[in-house]
Records
---
Amino acid sequence: QLQLVESGGGLVQPGGSLRLSCAASGFNLENYAIGWFRQAPGKEREGVSCINRSDGITTYPDSVKDRFTLSRHNGKNTVYLQMTSLKPDDTAVYYCAARMHYCSVSVAEYDYWGQGTQVTVSS
């Protein structure tokens, strides 16, 4: 059974940091493009980072560039999202998702999703 499990969310003060993990079971993350998405209440799910399968290139939207870093640990079959300088606008449920080969900005093009982890940025 192919499964993605996120962890590492929580409550953090503005300016703080968190590291989210996305662990895969039943398949090898190395063979997929892995994206991180987030969804705030009343808003659409949006991509915040992605890593291609083949070339390892990572992408970020301007809203998180220079603050979020995605990395992949093949030996642990896990992808991480390091988040720094967090802002209240970063509050959302964060999801990881997998699709073949290359990243896509379209939520509908991802085949596998985790259950999400809540990140709350508040003082």
---
Amino acid sequence: QVQLVESGGGLVQAGGSLRLSCAASGSVFSFNAMGWYRQAPGKQREFVAGIFSGDSTRYADSVKGRFTISRDNAKNTVYLQMNSLKPEDTAVYYCNADTTLRIATMRGLTNWGKGTLVTVSS
């Protein structure tokens, strides 16, 4: 099983930036994709961004042009650079590491870290 530790969240004003990090450890040979997800109060967890083989990326429409996902394979770490933050970006952000299909669809993702809270004030 893969262990996931997210960090970098905090309180920021609208228009500001944050950089989230997620370190994966354990059975890291079992995955080829990593992704970021978020869950706002009272809402379901949703896909934010994913990075796949060849460093191809995919973003939710709501964050395109503002968020950038990247990874350091040597460190088994994925990052999420968040710019031009909006109050609606407020959520607990989670990462995950798994197969391409599971990262892209969230189906079958059962192993989650504790997440990191991002609060954007207006």
---
Amino acid sequence: QLQASGGGVVQAGGSLRLSCAASGRPFSGYAMGWFRQAPGKEREFLAAITWNGVSTYYADSVKGRFTISRGNAEKMVWLQMNSLKPEDTAVYYCAPKINYGGSYYLRGSYDYWGQGTLVTVSS
């Protein structure tokens, strides 16, 4: 089970920190990713972090504004979001990268999506 939290309403230019808590299954051996889905749009990749936290990957749309991190002891993944824009409004999800050989940037490499958290950025 994965549970994302920390969403809310924020003004443009503001910040939010999303959390993703894992329970009930192994966590430390998986890379983890954050995705988002806006109404009427496909779920899109935002950021990923390797199992040991050494490497991170970002979509161009969030590079320099969002930071992914993890704590294996806590079974947690975080997404720090700064300089938020109205176009960042979406439901945000986390998921483990279950396809070890797959691309970090592709949705198909991830599964076991949990509940998302809604982020609304007002202009």
---
Amino acid sequence: VQLQASGGGLVQAGDSLRLSCAASGRRFSRYAVGWFRQAPGKERELVAGISWSGGSTDYADSVKGRFTISRDNAKQTVYLQMNSLKTEDTAVYYCGAGATMGSIMTDDILYWGKGTLVTVSS
């Protein structure tokens, strides 16, 4: 499975962005997927995760109520809708696929995509 994240950019605080994680590979729909981010000087953190079916999702406390993760297995794409962006959301965002939601939550990632930069200005 190969993953490619896209959709990042420069926005102002309060704006919205939608990130996409496009996958190639026949078994993509069997994997849970997470969106992670890494800000300068900080460790990578899990932002949101979604199960293979889309029936289960989880979010970091810092983004609950503002970010929504979803997936379209027919299009082999996972999305991260980010609303009410804050300057502290500035980071490189990565998507990663793992065997289960538990794998996502424990950073047991099988496949990583290249990141996309999100910059939120005040």
